[in-house]
Specification:
By secondary structure, the protein is an alpha+beta fold. It has helices at 12-18, 34-37, 106-109, 137-146, 166-176, 183-193, 197-206, 234-238, 248-255, 275-280, 297-308; strands at 3-7, 20-24, 47-52, 55-62, 67-70, 85-100, 132-135, 222-225, 243-246, 259-261, 267-269. It has 2 domains: 3-146, ph1033 like domains (ph1033 like fold, Roll); 166-308, no CATH class.
Length: 310
């Protein structure tokens, strides 16, 4: 297990809430950047300390190796000078209860900082030329102590994934062989087919919990397409507005069009679903969830059409 320090003042909110890191492949002038190259070195289980606005305020665990990805649309005008293609790393972040200012602990932190590509300067301020920095095991443990977080090296993160089926594998195969699509987009489309990658991050940014159960642990939630994959365009397949975050049993009903939603959050259960399923799964059919964004209404309308045709 390795330790990393990420400086992401401009993109911190998107990345911590969305559960990812993103960087371009290289500097704007095409030059190599060690802190961007580090993105390809992280491994599942590694620990990442989030630094922004002078504070270390979140700690994350890497879930998957880096994959090639377009720049997240949610960055907006931030990083206009960055290239549109780069590295995406899945990270499960948690906010710490007591953020710390590294400059207040320089006597302890300073001697453990890397000699080259340090994430902060000698005066304790962030190093703007460094995005993701490798730090020593000793510094990682010191930061964990200062932040009062427990880092278990034997801990295995988990998340729910659907078992592949022939239709899913065919869709992924079709995407991977469509060379009219840029490589980074092909990779993210393949991940989106199983509710992962950039699509999942965008859905998490819009919905932080299952709309029905209220579960917030992202490892236990599925990012599902509202408008089915085969009926959607490539842009719709990657759109966070065409996604919904659900607990696995709710997702199973939604995916089979046995459960759907009105734009205002009202829920409908299909008449063919046995009532004992609702009882056993503690689903209140009269529950009204939070209303959906207007950008989601067209996708929901398509889902309700499929619900009504069952």
């Amino acid at each position: 297990m390795a330790y990393w320090w990420v400086n992401h003042k401009q993109t911190r909110d998107h990345e911590v809430r969305g559960g990812y890191l993103w960087s371009p492949f290289h500097n704007a002038n095409g030059a190599r950047n060690q802190s961007y190259d580090n993105m390809a070195r992280v491994q599942p289980g590694d620990i990442v300390f989030s630094y922004a606005n002078g504070y270390l305020g979140a700690v994350g665990r890497v879930v998957q190796n880096a994959s090639k990805s377009p720049k997240p649309l949610e960055f907006g005008k931030v990083g206009d000078y960055w290239s549109n293609e780069g590295w995406l790393v899945d990270v499960n972040f948690n906010e710490v209860s007591r953020p710390i200012r590294p400059r207040d602990h320089l006597s302890a932190i300073g001697p453990l900082l890397p000699k080259r590509h340090s994430p902060i300067q000698a005066n304790g301020h962030g190093n703007q030329g460094v995005y993701l920095a490798a730090i020593s095991h000793a510094l990682g443990l010191l930061l964990s102590t200062l932040l009062r977080t427990e880092v278990r090296e034997d801990r295995a993160d988990y998340k729910v994934e659907r078992a592949p089926d022939p239709e899913l594998l065919d869709d992924i195969h079709d995407v991977e062989n469509d060379y009219a699509i840029p490589e980074t987009q092909r990779i993210q489309l393949a991940k989106a087919r199983i509710g992962q990658g950039l699509f999942r991050k965008r859905v998490i940014l819009l919905d932080g919990a299952c709309r029905v159960t209220g579960v917030t642990d992202q490892r236990l939630l599925i990012a599902s397409h509202i408008k089915p994959w085969r009926a959607a365009t490539n842009a719709e397949r990657l759109s966070g507005h065409n996604g919904i975050l659900l607990s696995p049993h709710i997702d199973a009903l939604f995916d089979e069009h046995l459960l759907t939603f009105e734009d205002d959050g009202r829920m409908h259960i299909h008449a063919s679903l046995p009532t004992d399923v609702l009882d056993r799964w503690a689903i209140d059919p009269n529950k009204k969830t939070e209303g959906f964004r207007k950008e989601q209404h067209a996708f929901l309308a398509h889902h309700r059409e499929q619900f009504g045709s069952r």
